[in-house]
Each structure stands twice: as structure tokens, then as C-alpha cells.
Amino acid sequence: MEKKKQIIGIIGYGNMGSAIAQRIKQAFEVFIFDKDTGKVKSAAGLTIAKNIKELIQNAGIIILAVKPQDFDTVLTDIKHDAADTLIISIAAGIPTQYMEKKLGNVRVIRVMPNLPAKIGKGVTFICKGKFATEDDLHFAKELFNHVGRTLALRENMMDAATAVAGSGPGFLYDRLSDKKAAEWERYAFDVFMPECEASALDRGFSPQQAELIAKWVTEGSLDLLKISKESPKVLCIQVTSKGGTTEAGLEVLRKGNGSLKDATKAAQKKAKELTRR
Ligand SMILES: NC(=O)c1ccc[n+]([C@@H]2O[C@H](COP(=O)([O-])OP(=O)(O)OC[C@H]3O[C@@H](n4cnc5c(N)ncnc54)[C@H](OP(=O)(O)O)[C@@H]3O)[C@@H](O)[C@H]2O)c1
Fold first, then answer.
1. How far apart are the C-alpha atoms of 39 and 35, rounded to whole Å?
2. Which atom of ligand 1 is nearest to the CA of 19?
3. Is the shortest distance between the CB of 33 and ligand 1 below 6 Å?
4. Which residue has a Cα nearest atom 13 of ligand 1?
């Protein structure tokens, strides 16, 4: 008899929610819900839930993929049914402790993916909350291996991860937007990647981590650019939330003489400012 697939629910089917859903649907049964019904209409191979209640009643694992400003509404909506559910959040600036405070003693995992997840070439940083188990952490790693590489981190490094790897693709796309396609690869590997590695070191990653992160961010972002056939400008927009970490970094880069190191520093500062307490 065929083994029943585990059910994953995803709330928010935007840039990241859809990228994750499309990559994990081979291995899991995926329920999705987005308040914008137009976005889910054409989602193939996924089950569209009528509402959050239906989604959470079916799925034992829920991925929260809405913008930080919509997060509290969703926490309120899932609160009564969250007790036996593993909650995985991909939102920037929402600590596990905040979710535990709002939801009670639930098992929470916080992850920070990046846009190349769309083609299975993302980098996802993962940390666990107080009530999540090592098995939960292991499961989250397996789940996000479907969208690229994963790295477990202490939560105090999540803002740095957001700045370097979450926003990183946006910084590369911004730098490439005034260059010809023939120049993209050389620029990405010869200029951006070493700067990205130096920025990761500067943000507190170890030399080994910094080298890997810079390589993964550069390769993944460049491959997405080639495969998606979108312009760097369009992909930059997909990474940039209004008032978010990428926007803060781009402001520094676009000043003219702003370095990538300064941009990631500004992005991390913004992540800290945005952190819910
Ligand atoms: N984009 C990136 O590169 C990136 C990288 C790492 C992490 N993240 C994190 O990923 C999260 C999602 O980002 P995104 O870029 O995917 O955002 P997005 O494209 O705006 O997608 C979020 C989706 O959630 C929907 N939504 C809002 N409130 C909802 C609710 N109460 N119930 C159901 N759906 C709801 C939104 O609908 P409306 O549009 O109608 O509001 C939208 O379709 C953010 O928290 C961000 O910090 C993003």
C-alpha cells in the first residue's frame, strides 16, 4: 500500500510561499491558503484550503509565509488549533519567543530562506524555539533541503543571516541591473562573491560559513536570473519588502559609494529594529 504523504500547510502563497510549495509538493501533500484567492487559483498539484481553519485542521506542520505586518493576524487565526502543530515561520524579524508568547507553549521553528528557493538553489538558515524538539529541527532541515541548502544556526545569528543571505540576492540583482547580460557572471563571481564573503565575516559568520554562504548566495541568485528569464530589476523587487531589510541595504548601495559591507550592516540594523518583542 502506498504510504500516505505527510501534510504541510502553507499560509501565504506569495513569492516565498509559492516557491516552497512548488518545490516540496513532490514529497508532501501541500495545503495552501492565501487571502488573495487570485494567487492560488492556478496552483497545480496543491490543495487549496477554503480558510485557515480548514488548513490547520488537515496539516500537522504549518509554514507561515506572510509578511511581518500580517503576522499577528495569522497568529490570532491559528492560536486555538496550534497546540499539536509544528509551526515553521519564514518571516524576517519574528523571534521564536514572540511566537511562543502569542501561541502558548507550541513547537516553533524559525527559518530564513532566500529567493533562489524558487529553483531549488536557496540557502535556508534554521533555528528552533524552546518547545521544538531536535526531531522537529531535523524535519525542518529535511523539508527545506527541497529548496536548496540548509544551515542550522543559533537564533542570535538570524538577523545577520537575513542581511547576508535573505537580502543578498536583492543586492546582487541591484548591482546587475545596469549591466549587460554578458557581464553578469563575471561580475557576480569576481566582484560580488568576494564582497559577500567579506560582508558575512563582518556580520559574525565564521570564515568557513562566510565562504559557503557567499558561494551559495551568488550561485543561486545567478542561476535564478538565468532560469527565470526575469530581469535583475524584477527579481530585485521580489526580494524587497517595503520598509524591510533589503530596502534598507539598497538605500546604502544606491548612494553611490556605499559598499556591500555597509549595505548588509544596514540590513542587519533594520532587522534588529523590526524585531518583535
Ligand atoms: N521575498 C524574499 O526574498 C524573502 C526572503 C526570505 C524571507 N522572506 C519572508 O517571507 C515572508 C513572505 O514574503 P513574500 O515576499 O513571499 O511576501 P508576499 O509575496 O507578499 O506573499 C505573502 C502573501 O501572503 C498573503 N497574506 C497576507 N495576509 C494573509 C492572511 N492573513 N492569510 C493568508 N494570506 C495572507 C498576501 O496577500 P496580499 O498580497 O493580498 O496581502 C500575499 O499573497 C515575509 O515574512 C518575508 O520576511 C521573504
1. 9
2. 16
3. yes
4. 67
DSSP state of 29: E
Residue 35 CA to ligand 1 center (angstroms) comes to 10
| Ligand 1 proximity of 237 Cβ (cutoff 6 Å) | no
Question: Where do the structural domains in the chain lie, given as residue ranges?
Answer: 7-153, 161-274
Phi-psi region of 104 (alpha: psi -120 to 50; beta: other; left: phi over 0): left
From first to last of its 277 residues, the chain has per-residue pLDDT tens of 455 579 999 999 999 999 999 999 999 999 999 999 999 998 999 999 999 999 999 999 999 999 989 999 999 999 999 998 999 999 999 999 999 999 999 999 999 999 999 999 999 999 999 999 999 999 999 999 999 999 999 999 999 999 999 999 999 999 999 999 999 999 999 999 999 999 999 999 999 999 999 999 999 999 999 999 899 999 999 999 889 999 999 999 998 778 999 999 999 999 999 998 8
* Domain formed by 7-153, architecture: 3-Layer(aba) Sandwich (3.40)
- Closest by CA position to 16, among listed 95, 127, 115: 115
Is the minimum distance from the CB of 36 to ligand 1 under 6 angstroms?
Answer: yes
DSSP element (H, E) containing 101:
helix 96-103
Regarding the beta carbon of 55 and ligand 1, being less than 6 Å apart is answered: no
The kind and range of the H/E element at 217 are helix 207-228
Q: What's the gap in Å between 114 CA and the centre of ligand 1?
A: 13
Whether 35 lines ligand 1, by a CB cut-off of 6 Å, is yes
